[in-house]
UniProtKB/TrEMBL annotation:
<dbReference type="GO" id="GO:0016787">
    <property type="term" value="F:hydrolase activity"/>
</dbReference>
<dbReference type="GO" id="GO:0005829">
    <property type="term" value="C:cytosol"/>
</dbReference>
<dbReference type="GO" id="GO:0005524">
    <property type="term" value="F:ATP binding"/>
</dbReference>
<feature type="domain" description="Helicase/UvrB N-terminal">
    <location>
        <begin position="41"/>
        <end position="251"/>
    </location>
</feature>
<protein>
    <recommendedName>
        <fullName>Helicase/UvrB N-terminal domain-containing protein</fullName>
    </recommendedName>
</protein>
<dbReference type="GO" id="GO:0003677">
    <property type="term" value="F:DNA binding"/>
</dbReference>
<dbReference type="InterPro" id="IPR027417">
    <property type="entry name" value="P-loop_NTPase"/>
</dbReference>
<dbReference type="Pfam" id="PF04851">
    <property type="entry name" value="ResIII"/>
</dbReference>
<dbReference type="InterPro" id="IPR006935">
    <property type="entry name" value="Helicase/UvrB_N"/>
</dbReference>
<dbReference type="InterPro" id="IPR050742">
    <property type="entry name" value="Helicase_Restrict-Modif_Enz"/>
</dbReference>
Length: 511
């Protein structure tokens, strides 16, 4: 049997040279700004610094040069790809200064985006920044966050006095993208027939524009026509973009890790550092009927609600493979809650929020913004696996992949897990837990994927233990030695025989 080689994601991250000429780019003058922006989240600082060294350090013309440098120095990359030609084939934007940043969901990607954008503008490397995201929900969240940060006088004062653009204007593509702006738009605005200022403002200005793709796994997986158009936009020669970076907590093309990641802060690291919830993965569920499974999920939900996390309103989210399955699951769940709690189906329906891309659920998407509030009746969310990012919901404490197809790739697993990772303010520092409730019938087929996404390995921890003097004890070392003796026996007849036996001689010593 051929040996199977295992490649860890961290082994595939491209290392960016730290040997940067300060006359070309000096990161030191932005230390105060980055410290104030990121606080104690050092991984955010590292992501910002690494990306800026790559883009502004003058060492690389494009991602291909960085990839080749790493291929020549990294045995794991050579083992994985076999040749640099093969590795280059996996690069999505080989001729651009492009890269990806892998930050676990809930770890604050927006601060990294903002930090990179502000410093690129302050350096005068670009005139404008375009931040593209996959939905209007994410667009609204980024706009709100960026406007708040731009109004922070402390951040502004910490930028160097000679900054080319010190206070950028935050807009969307309904306004013209002029010098000194950060424009936030969703990918649907990239269509030529959609009325937006993007094409008119940025045509032939790609060398003076930084494009940042939020949730960049959509660009690389191209799971729909809108996302296919997103990548075509990045490659459009009419713009000829030079600087392109993307951020995601799910840097997978199905099960394969991205080839252009330059900085990584994994989900496992975020859990261990207490920045997101811990995950209790329940793989062994032997429920025979849907109602039996509903009952187990319900029991855990009530325990979260009445005991574990009663200071907030805990939510349970159930994920299905498509809209049709989600419709049926929602109906069945409402019926179960009605019978279990002795309430009308109308009242039970108020507790369940169905979220899909169907036009009839458009209002429900808006309601997601309020589900954490105690005055919201929603306790259960049913959704489709393809809509699993961009929800800034912190009260999710139970996740149920209802079908195997909703949980059958590293990309989907990371997206689904990401829905429950953010920590409510009232439980910061307490390491709360989100339960992922699986099914025994198919959990075995995907457990290895879950283990890889969560980086679950057998670990031995060594640490000093405070102890009292009476913890000391004596160890007895026993020396076992075999000694032989012989005895002779005579019988009445002339027969004679010898019997040899052994006994063990023990000597003891203490230490």
């Amino acid at each position: 049997m051929l040996d199977q080689k295992r490649f860890l994601n961290q082994d595939l991250v491209l290392e960016v040279s730290k040997n940067i000429d300060p006359a070309v780019f000096n990161m030191d003058k932005y230390e105060g700004f980055v410290d104030a922006l990121c606080g104690e989240r050092n991984y955010q600082k590292e992501a910002i610094k690494t990306t800026l060294r790559y883009m502004l350090g003058g060492q690389y013309k494009n991602i291909t040069e960085l990839a080749e440098e790493n291929y020549n120095s990294n045995d794991k990359l050579r083992d994985l790809y076999g040749s640099f030609t093969e590795m280059k084939r996996h690069l999505q934007l080989p001729d651009k200064l492009s890269c990806s940043i892998d930050l676990g969901t809930g770890t604050g990607k927006s601060y990294v985006i903002y930090g990179i954008a502000r410093i690129m503008l302050a350096e005068g490397a670009v005139d404008h920044v375009l931040v593209v995201c996959p939905s209007t929900t994410i667009e609204a969240g980024l706009m709100e966050k960026f406007k708040l940060l731009s109004g922070d006088e402390t951040l502004r004062s910490l930028l160097p006095g000679g900054s080319v653009i010190k206070n950028p204007h935050i807009i969307n593509a309904t306004e013209s993208i002029t010098t000194g702006t950060i424009c936030v738009e969703n990918c649907h605005a990239l269509y030529e027939h959609v009325k937006s200022s993007i094409r008119e403002s940025l045509s032939m200005k790609g060398d003076r524009t930084l494009v940042v793709n939020d949730e960049t796994h959509h660009v690389y997986n191209q799971t729909g026509k809108d996302f296919k158009k997103w990548k075509e936009f990045l490659l459009d020669e009419d713009f000829d973009f030079r600087y392109v970076t993307g951020l995601s907590g799910t840097c997978y093309i199905k099960d394969e890790y991205f080839t252009d990641v330059i900085c990584r802060y994994s989900l496992r690291e975020a859990i261990e550092d207490g920045f997101v919830k811990s995950i209790d993965y329940v793989a062994q569920d032997t429920s025979n009927t849907q109602n039996e499974k509903f009952q187990k999920i319900y029991d855990n939900h009530i325990e979260n609600k009445n005991t574990k996390y009663r200071m907030v309103k805990p939510l349970t989210i159930l994920i299905t493979k498509d809209i049709r399955a989600c419709n049926k699951l929602t109906t069945d769940l409402i019926h179960f809650l009605s019978e279990r709690e002795g309430i009308s189906e109308e009242d039970a329906a108020k507790k369940v929020l169905e979220v899909t891309s169907s036009p009839k659920h458009k209002e429900n998407v808006r309601k997601l913004q309020d589900v954490d509030r105690k005055d919201s009746p929603v306790e259960w969310i049913t959704s489709v696996s393809m809509l699993t990012e961009g929800w800034d919901v912190k009260n999710v404490f139970q996740i149920v992949p209802h079908e195997e197809r909703a949980f059958d790739s590293k990309l989907l697993i990371a997206q689904v897990l990401g829905r429950g990772l953010r920590i409510p303010e009232l439980y910061l520092g307490q390491k709360p837990v989100v339960t992922v409730f699986n099914h025994d019938r198919w959990s075995g087929r995907i457990k290895h994927l879950v283990d890889e996404v969560l980086e679950i390995e057998n670990r031995i921890y060594s640490y000093p233990v405070k102890k009292k003097p009476d913890y000391n004890f004596i160890i007895h070392n026993i020396d076992y030695a075999k000694l032989a003796e012989t005895e002779e026996y005579k019988q009445e007849k002339e027969y004679e025989f010898k019997k040899r036996f052994y006994y063990t001689h023990q000597t003891g010593s203490c230490s």
